[in-house]
Structure formats: C-alpha cells, structure tokens
Amino acid sequence: MQTVKKFYYDVVICGGGPAGAAAAIAAGRAGKRAILLELRESLGGLCTNGYITGIAGVVNGICEEWVDRLAAEGHAVKRPHLPTVEPEYGKQMLEEMVLQSGTRILYGTHVVECIKEDNTIRSVIAYCKSGKIEIEGKVFIDATGDADLALAADVPTECGNAEFCGLNQSVTMGFRLAYVNMKKYNEANAAWRKDPEFDNNDPKKRSLIVYKEHKAYQEGRLHDILSPGNIVYPMAGRDETCMDVTLDATHTFDCHNTDVEDLTRQIVDQHRKVIWFHNFLKSDVPGFEDSTLEAYAPMNGIRDSRRIVGEYVLKDTDIGAAKKFPDGVVQHTEFYDSHIPTPGFHTAHRHIHADKPIENAVCRPTQDTEDYMYNPLVRPLAWEVRTDPRNYCEIPFRSLIATGVDNLMAVGRCFSAEYHANGSIRVIGPSMGMGQAAGYGASLFIDQKLGALRDLDGSQVRRMMIENGVPLDEPPGGHWKEIREFKGEPVVSASDMCVLVDKKGRTMR
Ligand SMILES: Cc1cc2nc3c(=O)[nH]c(=O)nc-3n(C[C@H](O)[C@H](O)[C@H](O)COP(=O)(O)OP(=O)(O)OC[C@H]3O[C@@H](n4cnc5c(N)ncnc54)[C@H](O)[C@@H]3O)c2cc1C
C-alpha cells in the first residue's frame, strides 16, 4: 500500500491511555512539537474505555491535575485513596489537556510498523481511514500498553509469567450499571459487617458480594465464582439512591494476551460472564434490584502483555525492598497484585518468594509449601515477601528506555519490569507518572542533541519532575503519610497483603 500522508514531529507518542496522554501533555508543555496517535476515538485507555475508573497508586503531577479539574466540575470523586473519575468526562478532559498543551491528536490511527536506520527509529507507519500514513519523529514513546511499537522496532520484550509457562494475568472486562441504589448497598454492607456470619479472616465471608456469590454458587444459581474480590466504583455527580457504577468483577483464565484468537475467546467469555454476574447482583445483592446493564467497557480488561527489556529491568524484589534510584521518576506505594493466571479461589499474588528475608519488606516463612498455586513449576522459596505500606519504591528513568534502539521509551503497563513488579506498578497513578517523565525526557533529549536516550542523565528528568510540582524529594503525602503515622503492627490480611493493625484492632493500608 502506498503512503498517502506524511507528518513531521519532534515527539511521537503511540497510544493515548493514561500513560500516553500524560506523555503527550508533558511533551507539549515542554515546548516540543508532539503528536499523539490513538487507535480508538477517545483518550484514557483502560481507565476510561475499560471502565477502570478508580486510580490506584500515588496521584500527583499531571494525574492529580486531571482529577482536580474533573472534581472541580463534579466529575471525579476525590478521596484519600482510589479517587474515581467519570469515564466520559474523563476522556474529554484529557483531550482538552492534550490539545491545550499544543500536542496534536490523531484518532483511529493504528501504529503497526516503523522505519529504522541502524538503531534509530526514523518514523512509524500507521493505518487509518486515510490509508497508510507515516509519522517522522526525533523521539518515540510507546504507550500502547502492549509494546506494539517496541515489537515493531525489534526491541526485546517479555510476556507473561514464566512460572505459569508464559500465561498472562487473568482478564476482566469492566462494565457499567445504571439505576443502582448505592445507599441501600452501602447500608446492607455495613449491616453485613455486624452480622455474626461476617468473618474478616475468611475470604469467602469478608465482603457481602463475595459471601452472597458463594451462597449462589453452592445453590447452583451461579456457574462459577466470578469475582473472588471486587470493588464497586460509584460515578460522580449522581443521586446516591439511583446512580451509575462501574465494576470489574469477572475473570477469564489461561490467557495469552497477544494472541488474536485467544483475545476473541476472552471477549466472548467476558460478555457472557458479565450477564451472569449482573443477573446474580439483581437477584441477590441489595441495591442492585433495579439496575440495568448500561454498557460493556469498549476496551477489554487486559492487565498485562508485553513488557520491554529496558536499560534497567525493575526487579520483583525491588518493590518489596522499597528501592530508590538517583534517576527515580515515579514513587510507588501499592502491594504486589499479579492476578493469578489460572482458576482458583485467590484473586492475586500479593506476595512473592525469596530465599532469604529482604530488607525493608515484610517477610515471613512461607506458608505456601503445600500450595503450588503460587509457583506451579517450582517449589516456592523459603520466605514470603510483601510490601510494607509505610514505605515506597521508585521507578528509575532507565526502566522507560528501550534497549537496542536509541530513541524509544515505553511507558505504562509495558515499561521494563519483571512480571510481579509490573503487576504492582501497572496501575493508573504510576502509569501517568511514567508518561509525564517520558514527555520531559523526550524534551531534554532533543534539547541536548543526544545520540541515544541512554546518554541522558535520568536525574535531570527527576529534577524536571520536581520543578513541575511532583514532590519526588519527599515521601508520598496524604493517604500514604497517614499510613506512615498510624501506630500499628504489620499483619498479613485476609486479602494476603500486609496491613497495619493497631491495639484496638483498627486496620490501615
Ligand atoms: C480489570 C482491571 C482492573 C484494574 N484495576 C485498576 C484499579 O483499580 N486502579 C488502577 O489504578 N489501575 C487498575 N488497573 C490497571 C490500569 O487500568 C492499567 O494498567 C493502566 O490503564 C495502564 O495504562 P496504559 O496507558 O499503559 O495502557 P492502556 O490503558 O491499556 O492504554 C493503551 C492505549 O493505547 C492504545 N493503543 C493500543 N495499541 C495501539 C496501537 N498499536 N496504535 C495506537 N494506539 C494503540 C489503546 O487504544 C489505549 O488507548 C486495572 C486493569 C484491569 C485490566
């Protein structure tokens, strides 16, 4: 096919999810001619189009500005942890922020190929309604979530969990319900916590939905345990007795997230399971009786796929060890959260194993020795390692830089990390932080006329983040500061993560 159009920019960002949108805004604000290529027709990726509306991780910088701007208009719920954004307004606000930064957007544009000279990408090739187009650039940012551009550029990538023979994390499609009485649901939930049956230490009984799900399963009314744990995200700006909510609650297992046939199987499976789950909610869970299925998320809930091999591969143990780096550009506070690839009762790996305790992590002798769910191919190592909620690790700028190519970065869920490190960091707050850092990194790279991104001093990117209001020179504030100041002892919770429990039995994570 002939190339029908050519574009010339300094910074070319492929993929307009949370990471790509933040990169586009940062590059534009840094004064660079930038273009954002997005295959769909709106921005925000899994957060908006996947209905994953609750933002985990540290929320600062461009991410915080986005939430604040939405909250000012009544379209985000600001709270100390997991603020939520209304997805439709979220898309529009990101679009406004990108365009205001001076960065141009092309929608309906699928990046598939690139043209390289030696180790430098000269241009990307994309297909769109116009036909085949070529976009030249000085520096490229892969924010496709799946490292599509890195793959095209022959950058080495990893995919899936070696202990599960390369399977990816389970897949969950988000969905949106209308006419939910959240007041009634919250009251029922509160009453459930006082019910003698309630047991915070029994995963089957610690949440009303999960408890009822198990009952429905035992009674043969539900085919499967669809949601070993789930969160109902209320949308902003609605009456609490009759509102929209988004949920991600149903799992498909044994997934290969870069195989088109398997991706199709997952979508069909998710469509069916969402109907089952919604029918169960209507019949069994107070507050959902009159709800209707408003929409399946337009984007399937892929948690992980390809990860680039970068200049630094962030190790699984770096998260537990709360490792800091001179070129640390993002702070990360959350627990290990790799959703288990195969069916079973537990939702996610919330600890990893090591042969000896790791400094700064919360470690205990392993209790998984008889349970091969954690390491099906090898016996689990002697120590269970969990993140300490009072500490945090950093993502070094080098983990965004692709190896083997001089002018490519990857941000968001395809950045360079081992499987469990990625499983923890892939969430929206850090993804936007990585995007912001890559936008600044691209700008510095161009200004300094460097030959290769690996020659850029990442501590300068860190400094630029700080100068632009991202407080990397101090530990995370707000919710995370409250946790640090909470007087409690680390305990392994029923959800398998480390929480702090005080003398009165109150819990904090
Ligand atoms: C079920 C589920 C639950 C989750 N729960 C939470 C949660 O509660 N809180 C939280 O913070 N995070 C959560 N996450 C993680 C989070 O949503 C993602 O990791 C995050 O959105 C990653 O952002 P990203 O920009 O890297 O990728 P994505 O959000 O996947 O965005 C990638 C973008 O690139 C575009 N694109 C892809 N390929 C191409 C191409 N070749 N050319 C052009 N454009 C392309 C896509 O259309 C998309 O817009 C969850 C994820 C899932 C699946």
Structure notes:
It contains 13 helices and 27 strands. Strands 6-3-2-10-24 form a five-stranded parallel sheet. It has a four-stranded mixed sheet with strand order 1-9-8-7. The chain starts with a strand and ends with a strand. The model has no long low-confidence stretch (mean pLDDT 94). The site of flavin-adenine dinucleotide (FAD) has 38 residues, from helix 1, helix 2, strand 7 and helix 11.
CATH superfamily of the largest domain: FAD/NAD(P)-binding domain
Largest sheet: 5 strands, parallel
* Average predicted local confidence, pLDDT: 94
Shape: globular
* CATH architecture designation of the largest domain: 3-Layer(bba) Sandwich
Instruction: State the share of residues found in helices, binned by percent.
Output: 25-40%
* Cα distance spanning the termini: 54 Å
Bound molecules: flavin-adenine dinucleotide
Low-pLDDT ranges: none
Sheet with most strands: strand arrangement: 6-3-2-10-24
In short:
The chain has 509 residues and is α+β, with helices and mostly antiparallel strands.
Would you spell out the secondary-structure blueprint of this structure?
Layout: E1 3-8, E2 11-14, H1 18-29, E3 34-37, H2 45-48, H3 61-72, E4 76-77, E5 84-85, H4 87-100, E6 104-106, E7 110-117, E8 120-128, E9 131-136, E10 139-142, H5 148-152, E11 157-159, E12 174-180, H6 182-194, H7 208-218, E13 232-234, E14 243-248, H8 260-284, E15 292-296, E16 306-308, H9 316-320, E17 328-332, E18 338-339, E19 348-349, E20 352-354, E21 362-365, E22 383-386, E23 393-396, E24 408-410, H10 419-425, H11 428-447, H12 458-467, H13 479-485, E25 489-492, E26 498-501, E27 507-508
Parallel strand pairs: 1-9, 2-3, 2-10, 3-6, 10-24
Antiparallel strand pairs: 4-5, 7-8, 8-9, 11-16, 12-14, 12-15, 13-14, 17-23, 18-19, 20-22, 21-22, 25-26, 26-27
Helix pairs in contact: 1-4, 1-11, 3-4, 11-12
